[in-house]
Amino acid sequence: MSGKYIDFAAVKEVVDFVNIMAYDSGNPPKHHAALYRSEMTGSGSGEEGVKAHHAAGMPLDKLVLGIPFYGRGNNKDIKGFVHYRDLIQLTGFETKWDAVAKVPYLVNAAGEMVCTYESPESIKEKAAFINANNLRGAMYWEYAGDTDDGLLSRTVFEEVIIKAPGNK
Protein backbone atom coordinates (compact mmCIF):
# COMPACT_ATOMS: atom_id res chain seq x y z
CA MET A 1 0.00 0.00 0.00
CA SER A 2 3.00 2.30 0.35
CA GLY A 3 3.71 2.92 -3.32
CA LYS A 4 7.44 3.00 -2.56
CA TYR A 5 8.58 0.15 -4.81
CA ILE A 6 7.62 1.57 -8.21
CA ASP A 7 8.73 4.78 -9.91
CA PHE A 8 5.18 5.97 -10.60
CA ALA A 9 6.35 9.29 -12.00
CA ALA A 10 8.25 7.36 -14.69
CA VAL A 11 5.39 5.02 -15.64
CA LYS A 12 2.34 7.24 -15.24
CA GLU A 13 2.16 7.99 -18.97
CA VAL A 14 2.15 4.32 -19.99
CA VAL A 15 -0.32 2.84 -17.48
CA ASP A 16 -4.08 3.28 -17.53
CA PHE A 17 -4.58 2.63 -13.81
CA VAL A 18 -2.98 1.30 -10.64
CA ASN A 19 -4.87 -0.97 -8.23
CA ILE A 20 -4.09 -0.24 -4.60
CA MET A 21 -4.40 -3.34 -2.46
CA ALA A 22 -5.96 -1.45 0.47
CA TYR A 23 -6.50 -4.57 2.55
CA ASP A 24 -4.57 -7.33 4.35
CA SER A 25 -2.85 -4.68 6.47
CA GLY A 26 -3.65 -6.28 9.81
CA ASN A 27 -5.29 -9.04 11.81
CA PRO A 28 -7.40 -8.69 14.93
CA PRO A 29 -7.08 -6.74 17.13
CA LYS A 30 -6.24 -4.48 14.16
CA HIS A 31 -8.35 -3.74 11.06
CA HIS A 32 -7.16 -5.21 7.79
CA ALA A 33 -8.97 -2.74 5.50
CA ALA A 34 -9.49 0.55 7.34
CA LEU A 35 -10.32 3.53 5.17
CA TYR A 36 -8.80 5.96 7.69
CA ARG A 37 -6.26 5.46 10.47
CA SER A 38 -7.64 4.84 13.94
CA GLU A 39 -6.05 3.31 17.03
CA MET A 40 -7.31 -0.04 15.67
CA THR A 41 -5.83 0.32 12.17
CA GLY A 42 -3.21 -2.18 11.07
CA SER A 43 -0.10 -1.24 9.09
CA GLY A 44 -1.92 1.16 6.77
CA SER A 45 -5.23 2.63 5.67
CA GLY A 46 -6.83 3.13 2.28
CA GLU A 47 -6.42 6.88 2.57
CA GLU A 48 -2.72 6.48 3.39
CA GLY A 49 -2.27 4.17 0.40
CA VAL A 50 -3.87 6.67 -1.96
CA LYS A 51 -1.79 9.54 -0.56
CA ALA A 52 1.42 7.50 -0.85
CA HIS A 53 0.76 6.51 -4.47
CA HIS A 54 -0.18 10.07 -5.39
CA ALA A 55 2.89 11.50 -3.62
CA ALA A 56 5.01 8.98 -5.57
CA GLY A 57 3.78 10.52 -8.82
CA MET A 58 0.60 8.70 -9.83
CA PRO A 59 -2.34 10.98 -10.69
CA LEU A 60 -5.45 10.45 -8.56
CA ASP A 61 -7.57 9.72 -11.63
CA LYS A 62 -5.45 6.63 -12.31
CA LEU A 63 -5.76 5.17 -8.81
CA VAL A 64 -8.18 2.32 -8.04
CA LEU A 65 -8.98 1.53 -4.39
CA GLY A 66 -9.08 -2.16 -3.49
CA ILE A 67 -11.93 -3.50 -1.34
CA PRO A 68 -11.95 -6.98 0.25
CA PHE A 69 -15.03 -9.22 0.15
CA TYR A 70 -13.74 -11.14 3.15
CA GLY A 71 -12.70 -10.76 6.73
CA ARG A 72 -9.73 -11.81 8.80
CA GLY A 73 -9.83 -13.52 12.15
CA ASN A 74 -6.91 -14.22 14.40
CA ASN A 75 -7.94 -16.27 17.41
CA LYS A 76 -9.80 -19.39 18.50
CA ASP A 77 -13.21 -17.94 17.58
CA ILE A 78 -12.56 -17.10 13.93
CA LYS A 79 -9.35 -18.17 12.23
CA GLY A 80 -7.80 -16.68 9.11
CA PHE A 81 -9.61 -15.71 5.96
CA VAL A 82 -13.43 -15.86 5.96
CA HIS A 83 -15.69 -14.86 3.05
CA TYR A 84 -18.30 -12.20 3.74
CA ARG A 85 -21.02 -14.67 2.66
CA ASP A 86 -19.93 -16.99 5.50
CA LEU A 87 -19.14 -14.27 7.99
CA ILE A 88 -22.71 -12.95 8.03
CA GLN A 89 -23.93 -16.43 9.01
CA LEU A 90 -21.85 -16.49 12.19
CA THR A 91 -23.65 -16.29 15.53
CA GLY A 92 -22.52 -15.41 19.03
CA PHE A 93 -20.65 -12.25 18.08
CA GLU A 94 -21.51 -8.57 18.34
CA THR A 95 -20.98 -6.23 15.38
CA LYS A 96 -19.14 -3.01 16.20
CA TRP A 97 -18.32 0.01 14.03
CA ASP A 98 -15.07 1.98 14.13
CA ALA A 99 -16.35 5.50 13.44
CA VAL A 100 -12.85 6.77 12.67
CA ALA A 101 -11.60 3.94 10.41
CA LYS A 102 -15.09 3.53 8.86
CA VAL A 103 -15.16 -0.27 9.07
CA PRO A 104 -17.05 -2.91 11.04
CA TYR A 105 -15.63 -5.67 13.19
CA LEU A 106 -16.89 -8.51 15.35
CA VAL A 107 -16.26 -8.98 19.06
CA ASN A 108 -16.75 -12.08 21.18
CA ALA A 109 -18.48 -12.28 24.56
CA ALA A 110 -15.29 -11.06 26.27
CA GLY A 111 -15.34 -7.90 24.09
CA GLU A 112 -12.26 -8.93 22.09
CA MET A 113 -12.07 -8.13 18.38
CA VAL A 114 -12.21 -11.50 16.65
CA CYS A 115 -12.81 -10.48 13.04
CA THR A 116 -12.15 -7.45 10.87
CA TYR A 117 -14.11 -7.24 7.63
CA GLU A 118 -15.90 -5.16 4.99
CA SER A 119 -19.66 -4.53 4.79
CA PRO A 120 -22.07 -2.62 2.54
CA GLU A 121 -21.82 0.31 4.98
CA SER A 122 -18.02 0.43 4.83
CA ILE A 123 -18.11 0.04 1.05
CA LYS A 124 -20.36 3.11 0.90
CA GLU A 125 -17.76 5.03 2.90
CA LYS A 126 -15.00 3.91 0.54
CA ALA A 127 -17.12 4.77 -2.50
CA ALA A 128 -17.74 8.28 -1.16
CA PHE A 129 -13.97 8.64 -0.66
CA ILE A 130 -13.30 7.37 -4.19
CA ASN A 131 -15.77 9.81 -5.73
CA ALA A 132 -14.76 12.78 -3.54
CA ASN A 133 -11.11 12.32 -4.50
CA ASN A 134 -11.81 11.65 -8.19
CA LEU A 135 -10.12 8.27 -8.13
CA ARG A 136 -10.39 5.97 -11.15
CA GLY A 137 -12.65 3.56 -9.29
CA ALA A 138 -12.74 0.47 -7.12
CA MET A 139 -11.69 -3.14 -7.46
CA TYR A 140 -12.49 -6.00 -5.15
CA TRP A 141 -11.06 -9.32 -4.05
CA GLU A 142 -12.71 -11.68 -4.44
CA TYR A 143 -16.10 -12.14 -6.04
CA ALA A 144 -16.56 -15.59 -4.46
CA GLY A 145 -16.83 -13.91 -1.04
CA ASP A 146 -19.99 -12.03 -2.02
CA THR A 147 -23.52 -13.16 -1.18
CA ASP A 148 -25.58 -15.16 -3.68
CA ASP A 149 -27.50 -12.01 -4.59
CA GLY A 150 -24.30 -9.96 -5.07
CA LEU A 151 -24.85 -7.55 -2.18
CA LEU A 152 -21.27 -6.30 -2.01
CA SER A 153 -20.60 -6.06 -5.75
CA ARG A 154 -23.96 -4.34 -6.26
CA THR A 155 -23.03 -1.85 -3.53
CA VAL A 156 -19.72 -1.13 -5.28
CA PHE A 157 -21.55 -0.59 -8.58
CA GLU A 158 -24.30 1.62 -7.15
CA GLU A 159 -22.02 3.70 -4.94
CA VAL A 160 -18.93 4.04 -7.14
CA ILE A 161 -20.35 3.98 -10.66
CA ILE A 162 -23.89 5.30 -10.38
CA LYS A 163 -22.93 8.04 -7.88
CA ALA A 164 -19.70 8.98 -9.65
CA PRO A 165 -19.24 12.65 -10.46
CA GLY A 166 -20.88 13.30 -13.80
CA ASN A 167 -23.41 10.46 -13.40
CA LYS A 168 -25.80 12.34 -11.15
CATH architect. name: Alpha-Beta Barrel
Rg, nearest Å: 16 Å
Main beta-sheet annotation: 5 strands, antiparallel
Tell me the number of helical segments per DSSP (H or I, 4 or more residues long). Answer: 5
Decide which structural class fits the backbone.
alpha/beta
Low-pLDDT residue spans: none
What keyword list fits this structure?
5-stranded antiparallel β-sheet; 168 residues; alpha/beta; 3-stranded parallel β-sheet; TIM Barrel
Task: Explain this structure.
This protein has a 5-stranded antiparallel β-sheet with strand order 4-3-7-6-5. A hairpin with a 4-residue loop joins strand 5 and strand 6. The chain has a single domain (8-162), classed as TIM Barrel (Alpha-Beta Barrel), CATH 3.20.20.80. The radius of gyration is 16 Å and the shape is globular. The protein is built from 5 helices and 8 strands. It starts with 7 loop residues before the first helix and ends in a 6-residue tail after the last helix. It has 168 residues and is α/β, with parallel strands linked by helices.
Short synopsis of the structure:
With 168 residues, the protein is of the alpha/beta class. The protein has helices at 8-11, 46-55, 84-87, 120-132, 151-162; strands at 18-20, 63-68, 70-74, 79-83, 94-98, 103-107, 113-116, 137-141.
Topology record:
Blueprint: H1 8-11, E1 18-20, H2 46-55, E2 63-68, E3 70-74, E4 79-83, H3 84-87, E5 94-98, E6 103-107, E7 113-116, H4 120-132, E8 137-141, H5 151-162
Parallel strand pairs: 1-2, 2-8
Antiparallel strand pairs: 3-4, 3-7, 5-6, 6-7
